[in-house]
Write a structure and sequence with these properties.
The structure is a homodimer of 333-residue chains. With 333 residues, the first copy, chain A, is α/β, with parallel strands linked by helices. Chain A has two domains: 174 residues, Rossmann fold (3-Layer(aba) Sandwich); 139 residues, Dihydroxyacetone kinase, domain 2 (Hypothetical Protein Tm841, Chain: A,domain 3, 2-Layer Sandwich), CATH 3.30.1180. In chain A, 32% of the residues lie in helices and 23% in strands. Chain A is built from eight helices and 14 strands. In chain A, the strands form three sheets. In chain A, strands 1-2-4-3-5-6 form a six-stranded mixed β-sheet, sandwiched between helices. A six-stranded mixed β-sheet of chain A has the order 9-8-7-12-10-11. The first copy, chain A, has a two-stranded antiparallel sheet with strand order 13-14. In chain A, a hairpin with a 4-residue loop joins β1 and β2. The radius of gyration of chain A is 19 Å and the shape is globular. The termini of chain A are far apart. At the A-B interface, α1, α6, α7, β11 and β14 of A face α1, α6, α7, β11 and β14 of B.
């Protein structure tokens, strides 16, 4: 196992310590239980956004904490749901009178633990709404999931809902926008290589040198098919086809196109995938009105990518463009 | 070779096409010869910054084109210097009366070709100054270099000099700031794995599963030593020691600390390295006044990292903080 780490059991804590040091102007990290919060939270009158999930997907979610996006993020152990006490502590830390939105990717442990934390928070008088993200079209049920998995649309939802909250919109309106992104967003990913969980010490799955996994999950869960290696054009078509057909996206739709690296794939390759995706979208008559190309939701050092398309409207575009200042996504501030 | 590409010979062109599509609001890409320019260049009255080098180091340099940083970037073939005609065309495209600064990493081909382009530009009446970056303390001479290699401090120099140019400072002052960053910046990198140049199709070097290369170059050039794998603490000490001793950095120095991923290393690990680097800096009495942690100067999909320290002053800090809007580095705009 070749990793820049010390003891495998210290990976999450030490990465959080590094993050706290590198972004001390913006974030505070609370340890035991672990959560990352906006330094200035709770922001009076603002609905607070809390997300979280297993670690190993950085910059998601801690890299999206800051003005215009999340108020807190709750990192579990690597590929392991955060505990209810972590989520509760984060919720308490950022909650104000305007209430809290939990943004939860659809993995069984995440959903259960966020539900439990929400129930506990409500007994303390905190208003909590939750939105479950399930945008991954690859498989219906999966290793850790009943129903579809939550993936790339979560980044878009956190940006758009975060902007709405920053503008002072009420909790219900912020939650509706988050649900709207999920309803109009579809994703699919693929792996060229496996990843290695530090405490496991060996690859999560074996993938021969001439094969790839289409529809892979962000924890290395099996996808739709294991097939021979293809070109970027072939791979992008294998991902974009199911995504485009699912909503379905139609000619004339304005879309946000998001090409995401899974951790071990360089930007050079992601731009090639974006080129293919743009051609496929143009071929269906879609208009790409906004784009995002980079490494935002990872599976440790996995080589591969995911694509996400979200059907946008004017309100969503305006909220996407709104100022944001987080470690991983920043503009206008 | 597992890569998200089509034909190896089309990698650079297709990635540039993807980049052009993804950042059409900000950049224009010119093909044959290839260069990336600010959509609004030449900016009247502004000294123009042009950098470049082989492709395979993305987001460097094309990802740093935009207001507050570069006016143009010139991408060569993968790990190959851009040609004089490319550099000349980029220089002509962005040159105004205030002249042009060439920011050149110290690799023999880059230096020669930028010099030749500068000479040609001068015959056309364009004022050109050049700054050679040579911040890598690992080795004195190298596979492609007479003297030290140019690495991470280049990113810092492009940001600080770019901000100075955006404020309308004259070419000589902008060049002086770039030289100041180089004079006060030191870097060193290490590799856990090799990278594979697409047209070569096999790893640039072989590195056994239990070894790492300390002092590696960004094209996979040999470093100082090949040693058994170590912890993040040990590795960071092996990089930071030579960096700290070289300037030398002294107690009380305000520094910018930059932890850079080489392409295949996830952010989770880079934050662990940052934690170690911050501890080492504190141990020497340095004050980290600004930091940057992420993947900014890569060697394709190489796993590993580099660290860069730059001794800052108030003027440099203010220019670092100035607004910037590029694909890869953005704040305030």
């Amino acid at each position: 196992m070749k990793k820049l780490i010390n003891r495998p059991e210290d990976v999450v804590r030490e990465a959080l310590q590094g993050m706290a040091g590198a972004h001390a102007d913006l974030l505070q990290v609370h340890f035991d239980p672990h959560f990352i919060r906006r330094a200035d939270a709770p922001v009076p009158g603002k609905a607070a956004l809390v997300s979280g999930g297993g670690s190993g997907h950085e910059p998601l979610h801690g890299g999206f904490v800051g003005p215009g996006m999340l108020d807190a993020a709750v990192p579990g152990a690597v590929f392991t749901s955060p505990t209810p006490d972590q989520i509760l502590a984060a919720t308490q830390a950022v909650a104000g009178a305007a209430g809290v939105l939990h943004i939860v990717k659809n993995y069984t442990g995440d959903v259960l633990n966020f539900e439990m934390a929400a129930d506990l928070a409500r007994t303390e008088g905190i208003t909590v709404e939750a939105v479950i993200m399930d945008d991954d079209v690859a498989v219906q049920d999966s290793l850790y999931t009943a129903g579809r998995r939550g993936t790339g649309a979560t980044v878009v939802a956190e940006k758009i809902a975060g902007a709405a909250a920053e503008q002072g919109r009420p909790l219900a309106a912020v939650a509706e926008l988050c649900r709207r992104v999920n309803a109009r967003g579809r994703s699919m990913g693929m792996a060229l290589t496996s990843c290695t969980v530090p405490q496991a010490g060996k690859p999560t799955f074996e993938l021969p040198g001439n094969e790839m996994e289409i529809g892979v999950g962000i924890h290395g869960e099996p996808g739709r098919s294991r097939v021979p290696l293809g070109t970027a054009a072939e791979i992008t078509a294998m991902l974009a086809g199911p995504v485009l057909d699912d909503l379905p996206f139609k000619a004339g739709d304005p879309v946000l196109a998001f090409v995401n690296g899974l951790g071990g794939t360089p930007l050079l390759e992601l731009y090639i995938v974006y080129r293919e995706l743009a051609r496929l979208c143009a071929g269906r008559g879609l208009t790409i009105v906004r784009s995002l190309v980079g490494t935002y939701m990872t599976s440790l050092e996995m080589a591969g990518c995911s694509i996400t398309l979200v059907k946008m409207d004017e309100e969503m575009i305006s909220l996407w463009d709104a100022p944001v200042r987080t470690p991983a996504l920043r503009w206008g501030l």
